Amino acid sequence: MSLQTRAQLVDGFQSGLVSSEGLIAHGRGEAFDYLLGEKTSKFSVAAIEAACCCLLTGDHPVISVNGNFAALCSTEIVRLSNLIPARIEINLFHRSAERERLINRELEEKGAKNCLGSFSNNSNIIPGLSSNRRIVHSDGIYKADVIMVSLEDGDRTQALVNMGKKIIALDINPISRTARTADITIVDNVIRAMPVIIHTISMLKREKSIEYMQDIVRHFDNNGNLANSLKLMRSGFERL
Ligand code: ATP
Ligand code: MG
What we know:
two-stranded antiparallel sheet, single chain, alpha/beta, binds adenosine-5'-triphosphate, binds magnesium ion, five-stranded parallel β-sheet
């Protein structure tokens, strides 16, 4: 894993964007990236195409942002939200008003306008979840039909799926509960996946019809995608 990525997260931690738990989650991600050979696989490319089709055909797509995602990809998050277009909602597992404010500032520095979060004062509750992490914005995650999540927790992913939302997960661990519960899982490092997602969204908007995109989403097989990604990791073990 690149030292620069680690430095970005440590900077994010020191400036209050990233939680201490976020650093642990990143370490877990690095282990899986090692097995992927630190490369974007063809299965990830296929999942990215399906994810982009889903985002572009949604009525109300939302990008959910936490500390790690903001520390690693703020420029790409803002570009993606403008391109789709999709709302950005800051939604933290280890919630604090201060960390929300800092993440919002980081995104605004990259050009984001009107990010949603619990500071926006119009919240609603995800049913079936306890504690603060059930609080979401009424015009964001609560109303969304398609939500992109990254480094997400399995319980919340399940609760959002139970609400009937389509979930796109960026998760490099193909056996996490999030990866297995989501509708489309991009088994890749967010650092590598985000530029590919942006490129794919631009290409689809330019070249493909709504019908084409709906068809791709309808035929995407996430269990097959996860099994293929796992096989690739197993061959990573064998190679080593
Ligand atoms: P779950 O709750 O879904 O079972 P978990 O409890 O193992 O997952 P969490 O800490 O809730 O893990 O979520 C973090 C997830 O994000 C982990 O699956 C981790 O592998 C993954 N992850 C960490 N860093 C990255 C990264 N840079 N890119 C993509 N995924 C990452
Ligand atoms: Mg978890």
